[in-house]
Amino acid sequence: MGSYTYRSPDGMKDLWCNEHSTCYTLDNSKHGFEYINQCLSCEAVPEWEIPLPNITYLSIDVEIRNAIGTESVLLINQEFNSTTYFRFVHSHGYLKQLPRNIYKFNIVLIDVSFNLFEDIGKISCLQNLDTLKMNENRITFVSNKTFSEMPNLRTNILHFYLNTNNLRQLDVGNVLVPNNTICKVSYKNNKYPIKIFNIKNFNPKESDTFLCGNIDFTNVRLNIHPYMVLGTSSVELVRYARCGKLEYRGAKYDCDCSAAEFFNLEYSEFNRFFGNLLTSSTCQDPEPLQGIHYKRLFL
Hints:
By secondary structure, this protein is of the alpha/beta class. The chain has helices at about 25-30, 35-45, 150-155, 235-240, 255-260, 265-275, 295-299; strands at about 5, 15-20, 45, 55-60, 60-65, 70-75, 85-90, 105-110, 130-135, 140, 160, 170, 180-185, 195, 210-215, 220, 245, 250-255, 280-285. The model is unreliable at about 150-155 (pLDDT under 50).
């Protein structure tokens, strides 16, 4: 297929990789296949983004039918079939809910940033969704069932962005994606502190694949580092979360005894789990450690 070759990170996603991709450099290969898979999840593209025969990738319009943004439909003025994929982009509007007929289309990208959504909505029918962007909305809660009831979506989604929303709590299952390699999940610049839970008692030992993906909590106040609610020792965590990194630039979280367990890691692994810029991540509790950078505690 021209300059692209078929690749399938973790055996579940159908992607195409440019022959000049950096994912297959010696530097990545020496770390193992999980590093390559995580790289591919960011660099490789799905079939609708390259000129494959008989594949069509179209934008789709929306008609808003009431003044409060709760009633809308998607519109297309040309014929389409099962090999037609759609991107739905409607930003800087007043939508509060996804269009009621969205399930009738093969949607692969949704960008409804800068609208008035208070929740993600029912997206279980969007089995080919690859990218979901809902930045700058009013989302206050992401159910731990939002994605767990969508096994096909779990194996396809690569990019999930909920930046600058109103979240107050978050299940770790919406931060670390079990049985899947992703590119990025981002909750940065959330307007309120976020409490991290592990309602379903997710344990990385039960995952069929390694936990790989980039997670961004830049400028967010957390009650606890997401990895600390897994009930897994730091040594075991390194074994099951071999690639990807967490970004915590400007983040603040509790520096309790559970955090101290991570000080036994090699510095390179500690740096990966706590973000590249440790000097920008500080303790918010207990009081004697308030404002202390995590790097100072480690060293």
